[in-house]
Amino acid sequence: MKRIIKLALLFALPIIVGFSSGCKKEKQAIVDNGKEETPRIEPKREVLVWVDAQSNIFQNRGRFRDKDDIKVILDSLKIVGVTGLVVDIKHNTGYTLYNSAYAGMLTSLDGYNLPENYVEFMISEAKARKLNIFLAINTFVWGNGSKKRGVIYDDPEFKKYEAILCDVNGNRVTSTDFGANAFMNPAAAVVQDRALNVIKEIASKFDIDGIVLDYCRYKDINADFSDLSKELFIQFLKDKFNDNDAKYMQFPKDIVSSWKSTNGVIEPNVTGKYYQKWLYFRSSVLKNFFVKARAAVKSVKPDLKLGAYTGAWYNTYYKVGVNWASEDYDPFYDDDLTFSWAYPGYKETGYAEQLDLLMTGNYFKQLMLSDNPATMNLFYHWWSVEGSINGVDYVTKNKMPIYSSLDVGNVPYDNEAEISNSIKYILNRSSGGLMLFDVVHITVPHYNNLKIPLWNAIEKGIKGK
């Protein structure tokens, strides 16, 4: 769940940017303006900590290779007020950290070994401390392109469904041609079925509180332009819009005519006549998958919770095909905010109702809107903690508990107080509570901006000291 590159791009943006991607107007920070706001839910004050597999096990300074060391860390988390864990058990290679029937098991990487019965051990130790435990998976990532290792390298038939991206020149290339995570095409039935099988397997195999879907998205705005996606998109246009001429489209130019590179990120330069409907199609693919994922989980254990992680920046998250809003929120017909990428009917792709909880990455240094003159008169502002929480509440309509999340390692905090204050604020605001990313940033000074252990900062924030 590393987001260092993305975060760097976000922090590079001027704070004035606000709704830079298609927002035509912003709502002022006037609570008593006569408009009905989304009702607030009393915060639960739960605190979850993410345990990334790569950073904590298969990296030189990670401390989750020794079981005695893990016990000490879990004891410390309990002492400072943490109430639960989110343990990553499907690595970016696509391999799982348990013996799976649908993916190889990752027992070692770069000379670092997985502790024996790691998943079972983590569950047992969490329960011994009365910590809730959720297991997380990299949903649509099935290979590590940098290391040329993973499920897609073992299974040539499955690799045929690797995501196809447009490069800056409009050439169609595979996701691993960019040298990073091997994303699959979420629209491919075989990809969905394999992910759903892993989800059901986890639900049946482990005694846990829930499953969290990470990377349950497209790789980026320039994915997926495969022949399969073209075929499915044409059928979508025929079924949804009675467009019988769609089969004659110039693909992909009728969606995006040309591309550009902005800070190393490939984005549309000139869009075609089908662009907005293409965004609608991609979002509907992921909505349909979440419907299936919920059904899969509940068919095994009706009380098991299904959650997801997304970024908190709703105004640009359409780029990865995700609409984590409620079906009751319409980004096209909105009196307060209007997003130029939305199309009539896009609201039906909202998948908030499919979730039992949502973790949103509120990974911003700015805490309050009043902290900056450029945002002090705003109410929704996706690049501050307060403003993004306002936005998350607004578009999700309280359909499920929200765990606002802090990245305590990559955000350039100046001191421990900034971390503590952000934690305090979130615990008094978010309906579910807080998720801290990642435990390695707390335990290993090398992996946070302050270069110190963060136990004191976390405890002061949670306990309000």
Low-confidence stretches: 2-36
- The name of the CATH topology is TIM Barrel
Shape type = globular
CATH superfamily: Glycosidases
Number of helical segments with 4 or more residues: 14
Number of DSSP-assigned strands: 16
Detailed description of the structure:
- With 465 residues, the chain is of the alpha/beta class.
- The chain has a single domain, classed as Glycosidases (TIM Barrel, Alpha-Beta Barrel), CATH 3.20.20.
- It is built from 14 helices and 16 strands.
- The chain has an eight-stranded parallel β-barrel, surrounded by five helices.
- Helix 3 packs parallel to helix 14, helix 7 (189-205) runs parallel beside helix 9 and helix 12 runs parallel beside helix 14.
- The longest helix has 26 residues, at 275-300.
- The chain is globular.
- The two termini are 30 Å apart.
